[in-house]
Amino acid sequence: MALSLLPGAPAFVPLATERLTLRPFRPDDAETLHRLVNDWAVVRMLSRLPFPYPRALADEWIASTARQIDDGTGFALAITGQEDGQEMLIGCVGLRLDLKPRAGMLGYWIGRRFWGHGVATEAASRLCRWALANLDLDRLEAHVADDNPASSAVLTRIGFRTVGTGREPFLARGGEIPVVR
User: Fold this and answer.
1) Confidence (pTM)
2) Rounded to the nearest 5 degrees, what angle is found at the Cα of 85, between the Cα atoms of 82 and 90?
3) pLDDT over 80 at 73, yes or no
């Protein structure tokens, strides 16, 4: 079951920050997406991705993101910036939406080349502000591998607080690992 935009809310359009644009993925993003995410340092922190990350999976996943936006079950958005006047793909930020308990699960990843520049904080903050203003959600949630202090810091900076710990399966790591919620 899908969540809906709040009555009177505008249809989704790309979201802008001072440095970034968050927009739906396009088929021509697949090659760069594959190059950025097919990196052990990136994918080991993502619970749902395999490693190595097959190139064909990038195409399939991008097609699925358009369906999620269309049916209101999620928003997986390309994080883009500018370099020498050209748009460049930096990473991904998204929300998986759940009717019960009316929650959005935040996720994000940034290509290694762009780490340490506040991109995840800027992108996640912008998407969360939009979601809380435009979606009928009671809360936003996230979980992070307990060996990922950089991601924990992002969540703290944008106002998330720790509510517990647990274990989650991480496909690339081949089993469950400790997470902070």
Assistant:
1) 0.93
2) 20
3) yes
